[in-house]
């Protein structure tokens, strides 16, 4: 902790960074989902995948760079952990659906 910062302020910053990472991860996966849904009807599927990848990487990288400049590496690490959470949740839900279980459990 930096001199003059309160524990509540630091924890609020970590929470906001985690939420920002979750938002970036969700946006990344949402963009991937939209791209995969459009692939069967795309005239140039390889170009669609490449463009989607570059846009998703660009948005994610810009978000992480913004956070790194504003907050520092500790908050960037927390955001990176938050970035992986949507992927883990979706993986669990998809596996449960494929196994015939209730994904809400």
Write a structural description.
The longest helix is centred in the N-terminal third of the chain and has 32 residues, at 7-38. The N and C termini lie far apart (38 Å). The protein is built from 3 helices and no strands. It has one domain (18-98). It is 80% helix and 0% strand. By secondary structure, the protein is mostly helical. It is flat and about 55 Å long. It has helices at residues 7-38, 45-70, 73-98.
Beta-strand content bin: under 5%
Rg over alpha carbons: 17 Å
Number of strands: 0
Name the shape in a single word: flat
Largest sheet: none
Distance between the termini: 38 Å
Helix amount: over 70%
Which blocks of ≥5 consecutive residues have pLDDT under 50? none
H/E series: HHH
The tally of helices reads 3
Which structural class matches the secondary elements? mainly alpha
Average pLDDT value? 91
Overall tally of domains: 1
């Amino acid at each position: 902790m930096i001199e003059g910062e309160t524990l509540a302020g630091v924890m609020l910053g970590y929470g906001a960074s985690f939420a920002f990472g979750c938002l970036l991860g969700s946006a990344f996966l949402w963009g991937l989902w939209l791209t995969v849904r459009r692939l069967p009807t795309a005239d140039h599927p390889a170009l669609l995948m490449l463009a989607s990848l570059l846009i998703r990487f660009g948005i994610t990288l810009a978000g992480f760079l913004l956070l790194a400049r504003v907050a520092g590496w500790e908050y960037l690490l927390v955001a990176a952990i938050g970035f992986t959470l949507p992927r883990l949740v979706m993986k669990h839900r998809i596996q449960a659906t494929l196994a015939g279980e209730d994904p809400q459990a």
